[in-house]
Write a structure and sequence with these properties.
CATH topology of the largest domain: Hypothetical protein af1432
Largest sheet: 7 strands, mixed
Strand order of the largest sheet: 3-4-5-2-1-8-9
Distance between the termini: 70 Å
Mean pLDDT: 94
Number of domains: 4
CATH architecture of the largest domain: Orthogonal Bundle
Helix content: 40-55%
Length: 450
């Protein structure tokens, strides 16, 4: 099967030489950086109708995506590229939303370059000849690792509020410095993010918070931390996650903490695995609220769970992700003083088996963010033990089930309760996970509940 590059060459050769097909955007930028790229965007002066006619009967299929924006998807086998006609965009600058109010197609490639966000993303490559077309100085910006707007910064950021978040993301993912004027104008226009639909904002935050994973070849192990700091510098953290910035200056007991509430949260975010970054940001947001209510931080895990739910629902996270993060916030203090009985800890590990691995990983990050050294919790040992000694990790792992209780004549209203009690007893004593012993235990439980 032809490679993606070979398919792109075949696609490019279908376009007339005087109206060539260009690669553009992140693909060209990343190629110049000599790192892997992902989404492929192509463009030319041909309108969508002409492209469809040109590719009719070829090995390439064309499907509509956003005809108003001159955008279609061109595909062949497992290759998909997004095609857009050269265009100019006009926005309502009294707002900051992400959709242009007017779109005009053009044959002027410079105008197409100027409507893009940053110069490093406005470099074109002729697919057939390999010629680089740089109309706004993007190649030098890539060489110098600089983020600068393709057009005047005021025009760029006033047009589209999402571009401030994209600026933060690219700086975090690529390790680029932000040019001074670009930085200043972006900061002045950060308020426009409020006009962007919340799902788009959440998606950008998600990408910023795992920026260190985007381009492994760049070795930006703290890219996500750089992104978080930029969000704070731009005032976006205060705007989007005020519950987190409320921790600034919140003093914590020096016996257990090196940092105030905010810097502890930032450190936890820095050292947490990528899938636990939201948990790190939200795990202690209950502390400021508890201090305001009662003058201490007791119960901040419980208060924080409710606050985290409000944040995640506000950002329209899925129900499943909301429940996962909220559960981690709720239980991040479990066995903090290593004083829970081993039996209770075993039961906790099994009862929360769906989050237990994440909780162990987060507790390790939280310990490093507190005292400067990462420590594994006893929960990790309990979890390893119940996985190794035959402990039933769910009701379905028991040696008896609902049908057995029916045969024993146990009334319906007691069955779920008896099975759960059997499960708990078996977790505390794995030797009970034997059919004969389990049946005897069920009978005994039924008698005690009669």
């Amino acid at each position: 099967m032809p490679s993606v590059q070979e398919k792109l060459q075949s696609l490019g050769r279908l376009f007339p030489p005087d109206k060539p097909l260009y690669l553009v955007g992140g693909f060209v930028r990343d190629e110049l950086l000599k790192i892997n790229s992902y989404d492929i965007d192509v463009c030319s002066e041909l309108d969508v109708k002409d492209v469809k006619a040109l590719l009719k009967g070829s090995d390439f299929a064309v499907s509509d995506k956003n005809l108003r924006m001159g955008t279609v998807v061109i595909s062949s086998d497992d290759m998909k590229v997004e095609y857009t006609t050269f265009r100019t965009d006009s926005y309502d600058r009294t707002r900051g939303d992400h959709s242009p109010t007017d779109v005009a197609f053009t044959k002027d490639q410079k105008l197409d370059a100027l409507r893009r966000d940053f110069a490093c993303n406005a470099v074109y490559k002729n697919i057939v000849s390999g010629e680089i077309v740089d109309l706004v100085g993007g190649v030098d910006d890539i060489k110098n690792r600089v983020l600068r707007t393709a057009d005047e910064p005021e025009r760029v950021f006033e047009a589209d509020g999402l571009r401030v978040l994209r600026l933060v993301r690219f700086a975090a993912e690529l390790g680029f410095e932000i040019e001074k004027k670009t930085f200043e104008v972006a900061k002045a226009n950060a308020w426009r993010v409020k006009d962007i639909v919340v799902e788009r904002v959440r998606d950008e935050l998600d990408k910023i918070f795992v920026a260190d994973t985007k381009h492994p070849d760049l070795h930006l192990e703290k890219g996500h931390l750089a992104g978080l700091r930029l969000l704070d510098e731009f005032g976006l953290l205060e705007m989007l996650l005020p519950e987190v910035t409320a921790l600034k200056g919140l003093k914590q007991p020096v016996k257990w903490h090196l940092y105030d509430g905010f810097e502890h949260t930032v450190k936890a975010f820095e050292v947490a695995p990528p899938n636990l970054r939201w948990t790190a940001l939200l795990h202690d947001i209950g502390k400021a609220e508890c201090m305001a209510r009662q003058g201490n931080m007791h119960g901040h895990d419980i208060v924080g769970e409710g606050m985290a739910r409000e944040v995640l629902e506000r950002l329209r996270f899925s129900n499943a992700e909301t429940e996962r993060i909220c559960s981690l916030v709720r239980w991040h203090m479990v066995d903090l003083k290593n004083d829970m009985s081993w039996q209770k800890l075993r039961w906790f590990a099994v009862e929360h088996i769906d989050i237990a691995d994440d909780l162990c990983a987060f507790k390790r990050a939280d310990s490093e963010a507190s005292c400067g050294e990462a420590h594994d919790s006893r929960l990790k040992d309990a979890l390893a033990e119940v996985r190794a000694d035959g402990t039933p990790l769910s009701l379905k792992d028991l040696k008896v089930g609902g049908d057995d209780l029916v045969e024993l004549g146990i009334e319906p209203r007691r069955r779920a309760e008896i099975l759960r009690e059997l499960w708990r007893d078996t977790v505390l004593n794995p030797n009970l996970n034997d059919r004969g012993k389990a049946l005897a235990c069920v009978k005994k439980l039924a008698q005690s509940m009669a």
